[in-house]
Amino acid sequence: MRDLNVTAVHQHTNISEAFDLETLLGALYVLEGSSLGARILYVRAKELGLNEEFGARHLAGQAHSDGFRRFLEILDAAPNVDMNKVVEASRSAFGLAERAFQGNCECMMPRRSI
After folding, report:
1. Which of 4, 2, 1 lies closest to 109, judged by CA?
2. What phi and psi values does residue 103 have, to the nearest 5 degrees?
3. pTM score, whole prediction
4. What is the chain's alpha carbon radius of gyration, rounded to the nearest angstrom?
5. What does the pLDDT average to over 37-48?
6. Cα–Cα–Cα angle for 51, 56, 61, nearest 5°?
7. Quick one: CA dihedral 15, 95, 2, 61, positive or negative?
8. What InterPro entries does the record tag this protein with (predicted)?
9. Contacts of 65 (CB under 8 A, 6+ apart)
């Protein structure tokens, strides 16, 4: 956000400290699954001249992560998981992310020499 001259808006969210396995797996699904989308976005960002050093640091880190594969291994090995609870926790995590990004933000791409 600093590269794009955008001010971060800090959101206060009340997140429970009491987690069961399904809640953690649901949150991990969303967090680690975002790396799959980051791979696509990182390719597009590079087409715009952004990279791991300017403007797309966060995407580069996620795009090179193997966390989703490891998450699937954990999910497969988890004993007696209530998948309905995992899905509900995933939806809650998606909702939290959606609310965090609902704020309107206009930014101008700063000029830089390549």
Report:
1. 4
2. -60, 140
3. 0.66
4. 17
5. 92
6. 95
7. positive
8. Haem_Oase-like, Haem_Oase-like_multi-hlx
9. 32, 35, 38
Which residue reads 């960002």 in tokens?
A: 45
Residue-wise pLDDT tens digits, 58-87? 889 888 888 888 999 999 998 899 999 999
Residue 3 in tokens: 């590269």
CB atoms within 10 A of CB 94: 15
Q: Which two tokens stand for residue 95?
A: 């909702």
DSSP lists the bridge partners of residue 51 as 55
* DSSP-H helix ranges across 1-114: 21-47, 57-63, 67-77, 83-100
Residue tagged 């429970």 (tokens): 16
Residue type, 81: V
**67-77 and 21-47 helices, crossing angle to 10°:** 160
